[in-house]
Amino acid sequence: MRRALPIALLVALTAIGCRSTDPAPFDAFTLGTRALRDSADVQARSDLEAARATFLDQVERGEVEPFVLGLEFPGPTPFDAALTVPSDPDGQEIEPLYLQLERFRGALWTLNQALVDYAELLATLAGSSTPRAESDSLAADQFDTLAVELNAALAQATPALRLDAPRQRLALISGTATALFRQAIESRRRHHLEAAIREVQPAIEDVGAHLQTSTELLAGGVQTQYQRSFRALLTDPALDRRSRAEAIVALNDRTRSTLRTLALLDAGYAELPAAHAELAAAASTRPTGTAAADDFARRATQLRQTVDRLATQESP
Q1: Which residues of 109-126 are buried (b: 16+ CB within 10 A; e: fewer)?
Q2: Distance between CA atoms of 258 and 248, rounded to whole angstroms?
Q3: Averaged over 130-146, what is the pLDDT?
């Protein structure tokens, strides 16, 4: 999982926050992206754990042989290890679902963390309160590295999330946006920050759409797991009619709650572009209010609380 923005960069950027820019909507945008990141990870972890349990059940029933649990060491370094991937009768490899979801969860976190890093960058440029630096020369130099890291995170996550995105649209911060951000850093002029945010807007719309697609894939995983659990309950010889009915009703309740939570997550990602667009207005000389950013943060925070409550209810 990706690290947060380097402290040195945050400190240096804060010292040069653009003059007269209200940091409140930028703080709200950052809060919202963090809440969405954490909520998505909780649900991805839940899907992964359910898929792993299903796989172990298949091994127990003899549907999958235990040898597939063994590790392979494919190199190129002696530190690389991977689980054996079984093959079907035609010799085609069949990767267990839980391994796919493990990779999916990591990629989803990476993509969300890149968004959080970007939000933190904007908040700092807008003058959010962090310790002041002795010099601002380091910030402009480090920004290029940060932009490369954010773009690399997006490019890395997209294939693992099984998203179809043209390569030319993978950059979160384009060369033009990088130049505008550097001007904002060096000149401390709010119109440069406004222009940079507007330049990034199409990429944010792409990222929001990718994250909505990822949420739909998680919902598909929930539905698949429900069908497997439902069939298992119907055929479990240890259950009498009353116990079977109670178990199915409980499964239905959990599944509906999870899908409602994912619907809220999807809605949060749908609001992302509008909240980001509002930041450009906030950085302009003609502020138009912060309703979109405030709503984005509020709903994302409520979602995080809902996810935490559901996770607590499902804990043994």
Answers
A1: bbbbbbbbbbbbbbbbbb
A2: 15
A3: 51
